[in-house]
Amino acid sequence: MNKESFYQFSTLTVLALLVAFYGGTYLLTLLIKKKKENTDAFMVSNHQIGFGLGAASMTATWIWAASFYGAATSGYTYGISGPLHYGLWGALMILFIYPFGRRFRELAPNAHTLGELIHARHGSSSQLILASSNILGSIISLMVNFTASGALVSVLSPLSFQAGVVIAGVGVLSYTLWSGFRASVLTDFAQLMAMMAVAILIIPAVLFALGGPGTLSDGMSLLTPEQANLFSMDAILNQGAPFFVAVLAYAIGNQTISQRLFAVREDHIKPTFITATIGYGAIVIGLGMIGLMALMTGMEPIDGDMNNLIPQMVSMYLSPVFIGLFFILVIGSLSSTADSDLSAMSAIVMADVYGKNIAKNKPDPTKMLFIGRLTMIVATLIGVILASFSMDILIMLVFVGALWGAIVFPVIASCFWNRVTNAAFTSAVIAGLLMFCIARFELLPMVSVIPVLFELLAAVGGGVVLGLMAFGFGGRRVGMIVATIAAIALAFFCVGFLRDYTVLLASLMAYGVSTIVCVVVSLLSSSEFDFTQIDQKVINYDPVKPGVQA
Question: How distant, in Å, are the alpha carbons of 70, 74, 242 from that of 236?
């Protein structure tokens, strides 16, 4: 089977599907379109998003095009445990945001971005580090999602890759531009309902098209012992652990998540995040099973490209109706994340760049909205251009992941510990990022004491990750105990072993080094911050009466 063997719709059919999806989404946003938009509503819906919309939006945003292909690749590569490692840890990260999110909202109930809170806590330099990392991460996310659209359209229709990229860019921008975050949340709800309905239909349809559960039982013989093992160490070290570490950084560092945190009504934060945890896990683990099915039937991905697994399975075993549903499923998933990226970047430029650093907390609301919409247009244009080149994004993804990993402890510590200074925050992030790059790209020879030092720093990072999670739900004492025990235990197991797993080693080092530097520099200062100042410095730009639904 080659590329031409994929089932292809006619150009007219694909265009009709895309127009129906994006046209319907645009018409949906007309229900909330206002002649005179409100800046706080544009950025965070006046902090009044309810439970249902909040949970759906969080789930839809967390599920992006890469989730489908990544989960399937994990199932195909690592066997039975692959989809669980991809979906379970991503789901749990949504849950682990919740306790820290409550603290963020407590300190800055009127915030639109996490950067505003950090600006009130430390000033411009720390805020701009956070803002810059978010803008870069969102641009890359846009590029990935537009690239997925181009690839899907080129595979399932006569249209070119570039045509698919442009259609997705214009389609997402068309319904997000006027109402911003409010449009993103409303359409997320509709897109998630569609994604759930289609996933529920497609996954069992593929299973029974293959011959049912009996066929998969026969396919167990094709699995290696590691792939057949639910507790495969190969899967844990190469997939589970690196993903576990990465998504925690994504959860704390990414504006698309914190924007929803600040938008949801404060009394609905807990049920919103718990529901999103369950929803994300169920959908992504289910989609990962398609990759496992491909492995158990002996399928080889076309051109060796793992991203062809799901389209290949759907194209080979399902009818055109189901292929059309799959097409909408992927377009819906990438659109729900792309519109979140546009809303996130507009909020960052509006609040962090213009509101805090240019207008000095006295912005012109009309100019602020213009800047937000202009940001969306420019970001879409950049995303489309980069996606059209089909660029290799691995280096940028690695860099952004490291930057987010290096900011996790400084951000959380800044919100709980009054000794953390701007110098501690900035130096910790720079040191963590620098050491990550040295380890990840092997800039120093891994000989003599260097690998031992790196492994010990990574052990500290592992203790920090587990300690932060324990701290979030159990408090400071529990967090300190867990972090200490975990770091000591990991040091014993990591030395002489972790150097062979470069990605995991470097990721954990980013946590460990940034934590050590942040703590040491903070302790060298005698200043103590008054947390009540944060609420006074973070304001609503268009105050509304409490309880008014945006």
Answer: 15, 11, 8
CB of 307 closer than 8 Å to CB of 151: yes
DSSP code for 311: H
Q: Are 113 and 353 in contact (CB under 8 A)?
A: no
- C-alpha to C-alpha distance for 173 and 187, rounded to whole angstroms: 12
Q: What are phi and psi of 221, to 5 degrees?
A: -70, -20
Whether the Cβ atoms of residue 148 and residue 330 lie closer than 8 Å to each other: yes
Residue with tokens 């063997």, as numbered in its chain: 5
In this structure, what is the dihedral angle of CA atoms 204, 217, 278, 62, given to the nearest 10 degrees? -70
Q: Are 335 and 171 in contact (CB under 8 A)?
A: yes
DSSP 361: T
Neighbouring residues of 322: CB distance < 8 A, sequence distance ≥ 6: 201, 202, 205, 314
Beta-bridge partner residues of 49: 264
Pair of tokens at residue 274? 């718990």
3-state secondary structure of 363: coil
Q: What is the DSSP string of 228-279?
A: H-TT-HHHIIIIIHHHHHHHHHHHHH-HHHHHHHHHB-GGGHHHHHHHHHHH
pLDDT in tens, 53-90: 999 999 988 887 777 778 888 899 999 998 998 888 88
* 233 contact partners, CB below 8 Å, separation of at least 6: 226
> pTM here?
0.89
Query: Nearest 5°: CA angle at 345, between 30 and 97?
Result: 100
Cα four-point dihedral sign 506, 471, 533, 261: positive
**Which DSSP string corresponds to 34-83?**
-SS--HHHHHHGGG-B-HHHHHHHHHHHH--HHHHHHHHHHHHHHGGGHH
Mean residue pLDDT across the chain: 88
Which pLDDT score, from 0 to 100, does residue 1 have? 47
Does position 106 have pLDDT exceeding 70, yes or no?
Answer: yes
The 10s digit of each residue's pLDDT in 455-506 is: 999 999 999 999 998 998 899 999 999 999 999 999 999 999 999 888 889 9
Q: In 10 A of CB 354, how many CB atoms?
A: 19
User: Which DSSP symbol is given to 499?
Assistant: G
Beta bridge partners of 264: 49
Residue 498: name the closest of 460, 468, 465 by CA.
460
Cα–Cα distance measured from residue 266 to residue 102, given in angstroms and rounded to the nearest whole number: 8
Nearest to 508 by CA among 407, 396, 395, 402: 402
